[in-house]
Amino acid sequence: MLPRAFVRKHSLNQSCLYFNSPSHAFFSSSAERGAYADTIHNLKIGRHTRVIYQGFTGKQATANAKQSIEYGTQIVGGVKPGTTGEHLGLPVLPSVRAAKDQLNPDATAIFVAAQHAASAIEEAIEAEIPLIVAVAEHVPLHDIMRIHSILSTQSKSRLVGANAPGIISAIGRCRIGFQPLPTFSPGHVGIVAKSGTLSYETVASLTKAGLGQSLCIGMGGDVIAGTDFVDALRVFETDEDTEAMILVGELGGTAEEEAAEWIKEYKKRTSDPKPIAALVAGFQAVPGRVMGHAGAWTGIAEGTAESKYKALEGAGVTMVDHPAKFGNVMKGLLSSSGRSVHEIQKSAANQRRSFHTCRSRPHVRPAPTHTANTPHHRSLHLSTTQATELLKDYGITISPEPSPAPLSSHLLGITVDRSSRSPCIIASPTTSPTQLSHRAGRFPFDYRTGPSQSTILAALSHLQLSAAPPRAKAAVVTLISSLWSLYHAKEALTLTLHLSLPPSISPSASASPSDDDDGSAAALALHHPSLTFDDAAFKSAARHADLHALRDLSAVSPAELEAEAHGIVYIPLPSPGAPPPAATGAGAGAGPDVATAETAAATATATEPMLVGTLVNGAGLAMNTCDALAVRLAHPPHPHLHPRSAAANFLDTGGKATAATIAASFKLLLADVRVAVVFVNIFGGLTLCDMIAQGIVLAFREVGVRKPVVVRLRGSNEEEGARVLAEAGLRIWAVGGFE
């Protein structure tokens, strides 16, 4: 793999080419031109922050605004396209530009459906709103890449999200998002997290420890984040209210590794660095599967949960295996760094006493931003036959699999580079699984202009085809252009294939003049196509219906289809001792289709270990629940509990779960004969605990629950949820603390 420094340098060079091109106007209307990195100071929200809503009069935004106003957030109005009026006693304006001119906002909260999110973000960038917070999930990936192409040309607006709970200053009483307010308390620890639910767990632990929070930034779980770990850490570094930092990561991308490198440099240049603790979720993830969050998959040359953990630990970060541990761990770190825990707790307590708390949280369930339940899976992976046919439409011919295998095979494709927030060429001089992760290089380019000549030449050089005949090199250049055309037109996530030189034109063979002149022989042999597409473009925006009609439903298990119908992400985990399924889909480079993980459950027998069926809200919390159960039961007291896989499944109910969703989840779990006990682990933000409790009661009544059920309800409407369960009189073990 190319060093990240090289990739960044190459990306910056491309930016310079783009900036100097006379054919592209800068998006911002301001005459000042700078870098997107210059906007991180916009993340320092507080009492001074003036906030507007886009989608202000919608049910979800209305309920959220009422809570935020009571919390102390300075909401100054909102936008409803083409409408002027009043809502919640505040002005409603017809455009973001009008709101900018009349209300002078510092930030906008975008509460619109996924298919409208990109245009709303674009309107806010054009109006130069300093901070843009987008909470919607299932925003099409190509919409976001286009937005980041725009953001890279300006230095006025900073994006948080999409698919993020938002940002909240507990000290400054300012919430822009949907975090559960009763959990937060003012204090002095900064938090940045991919997962909303794991951030709430972290907040609760710090509140219980008396440390509180200064600023909590939701990075979000999408493939590309508007604000990443390094951005947030740079804010915490200079924030006078922040005495320590917490990072909550998960598998997917390289953000955690980049944060580890930043932390190393930070500790070198700082005589008294602030303590840092972290958690990484996803150790039990099934290879090749998207684990709930759109970005929770490991791509080529990207790290696993284990490698991310080691990178952070190697940078001197204190690691925990569950967010409930952060409070006590952070007290120890603050004390060992020479900071007074007592003074920090005293300061936090003083701020709480003067804090305008949210005394009565409205029991209004936020309305969904679209009418249908949207499955969380974000990718469509075509079979080899389907991929071969589609590639023909773009002038790419797949050859029969070579036999014997070529002496040298290369990998080439187009995918997303999460660090540069743009598409990239991915190239490797080898397709060997043991070497691919180390030798694959990424070459980012601007989404709106496509790969430049210098980018293509850099990728060609990395393929190590310098000795190849000119015709073969020209064919690679044409191939890259064709792959980009397909990638852009069909909104792909990752396109890769293997290429080799036919024996007749390989460097070791004597080139035939007639071959070079008339092109009668193929310049390249192409095989092992792997094509994965972003299905949010179809499910959120109704684009590419013909492509997504190719999905082979016969290859999807009945359990998975039933889960999708309810907006649930359900992934059975392999039984102990069973090999994990081979990777396919978003995280795979190539290879044949494989059997799904459901096979493990279908073949279970009475001799199988008894496992824990997990029912969780939020992908990050669901991953960490599986991880933590495996750690806690590493030395099980029961002979049938195996240390490798204490959890039978990953199940994320989704943020818009209903009582019916919970009942359907129970049905899925109990159909797995390996499940001996059900663990319901909820930390509600958008998800309401009383609704979860009603769903549990419904499951007992309609599904017929005969297994023990352990329930942990925290967050929104927590007390009401406990009351519902208590009054039901069911055989349920209700617990508070995770341990």
UniProtKB/TrEMBL annotation:
Chain spans, region Disordered: 358-377
UniProt GO BP: tricarboxylic acid cycle
Gene3D superfamilies: ATP-grasp fold, B domain, NAD(P)-binding Rossmann-like Domain, Succinyl-CoA synthetase domains
Domain of life: Eukaryota
One GO CC term on file: mitochondrion
Residue span, CoA-binding domain: 44-139
GO molecular function, one term: succinate-CoA ligase (GDP-forming) activity
PANTHER family in UniProt: SUCCINYL-COA LIGASE SUBUNIT ALPHA, SYNTHETASE SUBUNIT ALPHA, PUTATIVE (AFU_ORTHOLOGUE AFUA_1G10830)-RELATED
Name of the molecule in the record: CoA-binding domain-containing protein
